[in-house]
């Protein structure tokens, strides 16, 4: 039954989301060659006024690319919020909570689906940025830069860093779930209260982190920093998960 829940979550995403992410790839290729062409043209053009405007166009195109990327991230966030809210507290809520599955399975199916969407969006953005950079600087310079990038951290630090990225993503998604669930405990303005709950919980987490002195480890990207951050995010995520599970199971309030 859990696999069916997960399959349903993945199928719930509309084709528009994949089209939006595909547009990042297409726009990246177009912008990369456009910026390269305009930059070369500006270097060889003698008129100062025309040169000024020609140099301005790549900046505008880069901003357009940033807007598209931001739209994709916002769309991913909207899907995470919408699927959790609609499927549990919306019209589908009664059906979802009466299925022969546990509350753990409901939360985990949505969490895994959200992680897949987040990873998919991250991969697409990474490919898009790569396709944007290669035409501008050249494939040779890009390939020459990769070994230098790899040497910035040790293999162990890269591994722990990616692990931290995964755990922090899980913790962030669970925080959203917890905030939405807290918002449902109120009789009115549940959306607003969920928004407030998100910032209140975030502030509490930040305050506790400062009290424990974790900020002292944030100055250097060492393996100790990543390990500490992984442990911190894991504890936060576990608390968010258990709190969400408790509220869904014992304090659920569906309109």
From TrEMBL:
* Entry keyword Transmembrane: yes
Q: Which UniProt keywords apply?
A: Membrane, Transmembrane, Transmembrane helix
Report whether Membrane shows up as a keyword of the record: yes
Which parts pass through the membrane? 16-35, 55-81, 115-138, 158-180, 192-213, 225-248
What highest taxon heads this organism's lineage?
Bacteria
Q: What is the protein named?
A: ABC transporter permease
Organism, scientific name: Streptococcus ruminicola
């Amino acid at each position: 039954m859990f696999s069916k829940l997960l399959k349903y979550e993945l199928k719930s995403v509309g084709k528009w989301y994949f089209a939006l992410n595909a547009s990042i790839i297409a726009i990246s290729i177009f912008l990369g060659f456009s910026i390269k062409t305009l930059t070369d043209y500006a270097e060889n053009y003698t008129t100062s006024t025309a040169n000024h405007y020609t140099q301005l166009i790549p900046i505008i195109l880069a901003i357009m690319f940033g807007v598209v990327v931001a739209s994709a991230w916002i769309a991913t966030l909207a899907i995470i919020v919408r699927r959790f809210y609609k499927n549990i507290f919306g019209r589908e809520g009664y059906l979802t909570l009466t299925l022969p599955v546990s509350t753990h399975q409901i939360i985990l199916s949505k969490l895994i689906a959200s992680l897949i969407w987040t990873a998919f969006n991250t991969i697409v953005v990474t490919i898009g940025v790569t396709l944007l950079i290669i035409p501008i600087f050249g494939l040779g310079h890009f390939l020459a830069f990769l070994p230098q990038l790899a040497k910035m951290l040790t293999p162990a630090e890269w591994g722990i860093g990616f692990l931290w990225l995964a755990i922090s993503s899980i913790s962030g998604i669970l925080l959203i779930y917890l905030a939405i669930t807290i918002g449902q405990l109120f009789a009115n303005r549940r959306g607003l209260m969920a928004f407030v709950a998100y910032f209140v919980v975030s502030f509490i987490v930040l305050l506790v982190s400062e009290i424990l002195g974790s900020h002292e480890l944030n100055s250097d990207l060492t393996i100790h920093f990543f390990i500490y951050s992984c442990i911190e995010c894991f504890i936060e995520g576990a608390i968010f998960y258990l709190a969400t599970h408790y509220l869904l199971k014992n304090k659920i309030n569906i309109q």
